[in-house]
Design brief:
The chain is of the alpha+beta class. It folds into two domains: 3-140, Hotdog Thioesterase (Thiol Ester Dehydrase, Chain A, Roll); 156-265, Thiol Ester Dehydrase, Chain A (Roll), CATH 3.10.129.10. Helix content is 18%, strand content 39%. Strands 1, 2, 3, 4, 5, 6, 7, 8, 9, 10 and 11 form an eleven-stranded antiparallel beta sheet that branches. The chain is globular.
Length: 267
């Protein structure tokens, strides 16, 4: 077994991943938010494979909603590159909160780890009320414990950095099957904030490479909301090559999410 597979349970089922052209920028590598979307596809495929399709969640009047997600990128995903995803639930609390692991690999002779994620999910009614998962969930999803969570890399804090702010209004056409902005879109919002900071400093935002990010979700974003994205440099690592940014995403006075992203610029 390759080193990359040692932290993946052998019983986890592999799912093929195809990232579409719109996921790639001018350098023909995938954006971080689209890596998050690919991971979501893997989770949906795994859920559907055990009988919990999107339609069944609607029929049961339940859903899983992401509370926190942390991702580390080993390298960028190239356009038209085939990938394989694996995912498994690793922990539960009070039958309402669940931890899930996701890994993306390049399916080479020795599988190469591309990106890793740990997701914290809440089990809710479709009215957004916390509920306990029943027998149907536990019969379908087997917890596989003992595998490590994904953590954000450490960095040296920078203080007294300027705050960058921009606003936009969400489109009705951006809403996901739960009628709110999908969790991966929050990464897009943060990366736009970073891109504007880099561009204002004379850099090329298209040369940003994702290293890692974590987002804590606090409130849903609906259509037609005026959203404010705050971004500030928070720290550095690897002799200043990796820059950490802190973000807040707000709707009026409501904090919808807080996030930390770590990015580097190609030479």
């Amino acid at each position: 077994m390759s080193d990359e597979l040692k932290n993946v349970p052998p019983a986890s089922q592999p799912f093929p991943v195809t990232m579409q052209r719109h996921a790639f920028g001018p350098r023909l590598v995938a954006r971080a938010g689209d890596v998050w979307r690919a991971m979501q596809d893997v989770v949906v495929d795994q859920s559907s494979s055990v009988g919990w399709t999107p339609e069944r969640y609607v029929a049961e009047n339940t859903m899983f909603v992401v509370r926190t997600m942390t991702v580390r990128h080993e390298r960028e995903v190239r356009i038209a590159e085939p990938l394989v995803g694996r995912t498994w639930p690793s922990r539960e609390r009070r039958q309402m909160l669940f931890t899930r692991q996701v890994r993306l690999f390049a399916p080479t002779a020795e599988p190469e780890l591309i990106a890793s994620a740990t997701q914290e999910w809440a089990y809710l009614s479709r009215d957004l009320e916390p509920i306990r998962a029943g027998k149907g969930i536990y019969d379908a999803f087997s917890l596989i414990e003992g595998f490590p969570d994904v953590d954000l890399p450490s960095f040296v804090a920078d203080t007294n950095q300027p705050l960058h702010v921009f606003d936009f209004t969400t489109w009705h056409g951006w809403m996901d099957p739960h009628s709110h902005a999908n969790h991966a879109a929050y990464v897009d919002y943060c990366d736009e904030g970073v891109a504007r900071v880099v561009a204002a400093a004379g850099g090329n935002p298209q040369n940003l490479i994702p290293v890692a990010e974590t987002v804590h979700f606090r409130a849903a974003i609906g259509a037609g909301e005026l959203i404010t994205v705050e971004t500030t440099r928070a720290g550095h690592a690897h002799a200043g090559k990796h820059i950490a940014y802190k973000h807040r995403i707000l709707s009026g006075e409501k904090v919808c999410a807080t996030a930390t992203t770590i990015r580097t610029l190609v030479e």
